[in-house]
Amino acid sequence: MRTGRMQWKYGETAYTVFGDLSSELTPLVILHGGPGSTSRGMATIAQYVLATGRPAITYDQIGCGESSELLDKPQDFWQISLFVEECEALINHLGIAEKFSLLGHSWGGLLAAEMAITQPAGLQSIILSSALGDTQTWMDEVRKLVHQMPEAIAQTIIRHEDGGTTDDPEYMVAAEKFYDLHVIRIPKPPHVLEYTEQSAAHPNVYHSMWGRSELNCTGTLNGHIVTDRLVNITAQTLILSGRHDESTPAINEIFKAKIVDSAWEIFEESAHYTYLEEAGKYQRVINSFLESS
After folding, report:
1. 284: three-class secondary structure by DSSP
2. Measured in Å, how far apart are the chain's first and last C-alpha atoms?
3. What is the rounded CA–CA span in Å between residue 101 and residue 249?
4. What is the CATH number of the domain that holds 47?
5. CA–CA distance, 10 with 115 (Å, rounded to integer)
6. Which one of the listed residues 37, 160, 245, 270 is annotated catalytic?
7. Interatomic CA distance for residues 98 and 61, integer angstroms
8. pLDDT recorded at residue 120
9. For residue 169, what are the domain limits?
C-alpha cells in the first residue's frame, strides 16, 4: 500500500494505492460517498479486491479528508463536473487510463455513473453500490420510507424536515431511528460513526451539494437528473443495493432498465452499507463480477 498526492489546478487530491498497478489485473478505482465524506470506509472494499491480487485505488475527493479543503469556494463551485474532472485527472496521473474499472458507493455511485456516461476509452466495467440516482426520486423514496415508520417518529421527522429545524435534538433522535433501519442495520464501525463528524468538518462540500439534512436535498444536487443519460453507459455494469436500503428498489430498477449491459444484485439483510452488513457476500459478488468483466 502506498499513498500519494496529485497536484492539479484546484489543489491536491490525496490517494492510496492498494497492490501493484503493474499487475495484469484491471485496477479498480473506488469513489466514496457523501458528498463530503472521506475514503476511509472504501479501504474495506479495496482490501476485498486486493485479496484476489487486483490493485485498487481510493482517494479523498477534493474538499474532503486529506485533500485540499478549499474553504473559500462558494456554493456553486461544488458541482458534479468538478468531481468528474478530478477522477479523470487521477486516472491519468496514475497511468491507468487505458484500462480501469470503477466502483462508487452512494453519492460515489452517481459520480461513477456520470464518469461512465462520458464513455472513457479505458473503462472496463462499473459497479454502482447503493447509488444515488435522480435527486427528486431519492427524496420521494426516502419520504415513503419515513411514512412506513411508527407514526410518532414519522411525523417528527417530517415536521422538522418541512420546518427547516433539522438541528433540533428531537429531530436528530427520530432521524437516528431512520438510519438504524435504512442506512446501517448492524453496530456501526468507527468510520460510519464518524460520518456525521466528517460531514460537519467539510460543510463546504456536504452543505453546498446536498444540504443541512440527510433526507432532503437543498444544495447544488437539487433537481439533478442522471437517468435520462444512462443509456450512454456502454461498460458492463453491476448494480448492488440492500433490501432495506435508502437507495430503494425503485431507484435501482431505473439503473437496471436504462443501462443495457447490467446486472442487479439485492442484499436481503442489508440497508445502505451492504459492503459491511453482508461483507462476505459483497466480496464474493464484486470479485466474481470483476473477474468476468
Report:
1. helix
2. 25
3. 24
4. 3.40.50.1820
5. 19
6. 245
7. 22
8. 97
9. 137-209
Q: Of 37, 67, 101, 106, which one is the catalytic site residue? A: 106
272 is catalytic: yes
Do residue 109 and residue 26 come from a single domain?
yes
Is-above-0.85 flag for pTM?
Answer: yes
Angle, helix 151-163 to helix 169-182, in steps of 10 degrees = 120
**pLDDT classification of 214: cutoffs 50, 70, 90:** confident
For residue 96, pLDDT over 90 is answered with: yes
Residue 226 is predicted with a pLDDT of 98
Same domain, 106 and 154: no
Respond yes or no: is residue 270 known to be catalytic. Answer: no
Q: Which of 32, 207, 224, 272 is catalytic?
A: 272
- pLDDT at position 193, please? 74
Q: Do 124 and 20 share a structural domain?
A: yes
Residues 171 and 229 in one domain: no
Residue 273 lies in a domain: yes
Residue 220 maps to a domain: no
- Do the domain assignments include residue 218? no
Average pLDDT of the chain to the nearest whole number? 94
Region 115-133 average pLDDT: 97
Dist CA 26 CA 16 (whole Å): 16
Quote the percentage of the chain above a pLDDT of 70: 97
Domain count, the chain: 2
So what's the pLDDT on residue 197? 59
Specify whether the CB–CB gap between 62 and 70 falls below 8 A. Answer: yes
